[in-house]
Amino acid sequence: MKIDFLLNHPDKIKEVAEMIYKEFVVKASNGMKFEDVVKHFSNTGDNTFPITLLALENGECLGTVSIFENDLKIRDMYKPWLASLYTKPDSRSRGIGQKLVAKTIDVVKELGFKELYLRTEDTSEYYRNRGWAYVETVSDDNHEKIDIFKMKCI
């Protein structure tokens, strides 16, 4: 398995967009259309935000993660953010998510950042158990509780 930039695999853009649309966008009910998600992933880079990484094995995309400059408007002082970590259900429990996160930290460090942030509504224990430091809990526009975590990129 290898981790690479989506930028290097344009044939995987729609597949990644579909995974993220189904897992995050539909659940958020924010009105974003699938075409908007495809457009977003068509414009990811390798050294400017947004950045998207893929876990690939034998040409198949097993999972993805993105790096955004900001993933929570009410906390724009925190930069950058790990976002949209997703592993396909039939590929879970193989450490793919951890490898995607490790590569994300490497990329962020190469870009000169000393910390990486993330937000989660329902997987706080997952990140706590993997060494992420709790920062704070905030409420979004829908009054939903969001936990913010950070990882030192040293």
TrEMBL record:
CDD domains in the record: NAT_SF (cd04301)
UniProt cross-references to InterPro entries, sorted A to Z: Acyl_CoA_acyltransferase, GNAT_dom, NAA80
Domain spans labelled N-acetyltransferase: 3-153
Protein name per UniProt: Acetyltransferase (GNAT) family protein
Organism encoding this protein: Virgibacillus subterraneus
